[in-house]
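In the design runs reported in the main text, the only information available to the sequence generator was the tokenized backbone. The following block is the verbatim input for one such run; it is reproduced so that readers can re-run the procedure and compare outputs position by position.
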């Protein structure tokens, strides 16, 4: 059976199977033009490297023909490079079905359908995917997961502290190194690993006012952690936004009873110590969040 491109043949796109069943419009001058009626799209490829797979239905397969419904293939014949199917309807009648009139709404999604349609890839791609999954599994199981990504110098004492603390079931520690030995980096490593391992979902950092922006920059630049700075102005802004009625059926009494918590708007938060320590209401909202 012919495998060259011939006008009228039905093919499917390997990288875009969602386009449905295509039909060859032209095959000449080392190029092939294929239309995809279901998606109302048209593609032009080099004949030698076209990412297309021939769609051939075998005896016993179901095919769909517009205005005729589903049919069962009983025989197939080749004429000038194209296929004519002989298919049986629900009444037992046999109908000749040129492949050109097959429904374009076909998607080869499972492995069996793709295999029977000849939509296969080179074994090197399978080997690459298998090797990728193996490396991914090795990376996820590594004890150093979460410690190697940050943009920091790998100092032994920092790595030891971060790995030791992050390995605990419920870390509760006081980092008390000398000035300049990297307590911020140690804390960042611990936070980064706990987040990456999904042992922590949300993080709150409370620091002296003068260090708020320093921690914000360090967390972003070294660990790619995008924290949000929370203060009274930001909380009020969120409160005012939440208080705005969202529909014509706004119930003021219900809105008062259901007070929104501004700390639920972010997963990674930095707060100045002086502000949060002087606002009991915000402290309660923090605990509730």
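Verbatim output:
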């Amino acid at each position: 059976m012919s495998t060259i491109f011939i006008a009228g043949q039905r093919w499917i796109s390997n990288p875009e199977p969602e386009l449905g069943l295509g039909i060859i419009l032209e095959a000449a001058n080392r190029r092939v033009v294929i239309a995809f009626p279901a998606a109302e799209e048209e593609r032009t490829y080099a004949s030698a490297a076209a990412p297309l797979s021939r769609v051939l239905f075998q005896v016993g397969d179901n095919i769909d023909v517009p205005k005729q419904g589903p049919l069962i293939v009983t025989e197939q014949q080749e004429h000038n490079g194209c296929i004519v199917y002989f298919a049986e309807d629900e009444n037992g009648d046999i109908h000749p079905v040129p492949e050109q009139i097959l429904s374009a709404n076909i998607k080869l999604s499972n492995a069996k359908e793709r295999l029977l349609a000849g939509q296969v890839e080179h074994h090197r791609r399978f080997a690459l995917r298998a090797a990728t999954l193996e490396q991914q599994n090795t990376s996820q199981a590594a004890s150093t997961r979460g410690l190697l990504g940050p943009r920091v110098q790998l100092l032994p004492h920092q790595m030891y502290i971060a790995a030791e603390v992050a390995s605990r079931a419920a870390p509760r520690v006081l980092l008390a190194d000398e000035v300049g030995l990297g307590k911020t980096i140690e804390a960042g490593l611990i936070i980064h690993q706990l987040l990456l391992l999904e042992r922590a979902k949300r993080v709150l950092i409370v620091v002296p006012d003068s260090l708020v922006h320093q921690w914000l920059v360090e967390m972003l630049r070294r660990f790619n952690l995008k924290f949000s700075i929370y203060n009274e102005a930001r909380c009020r802004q969120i409160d005012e936004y939440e208080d705005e009625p969202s529909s014509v059926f706004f119930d003021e009494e219900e809105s008062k009873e259901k007070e929104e918590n501004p700390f639920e708007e972010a997963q990674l938060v930095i707060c100045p110590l002086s502000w949060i320590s002087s606002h009991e209401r915000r402290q309660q909202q923090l605990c509730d969040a």
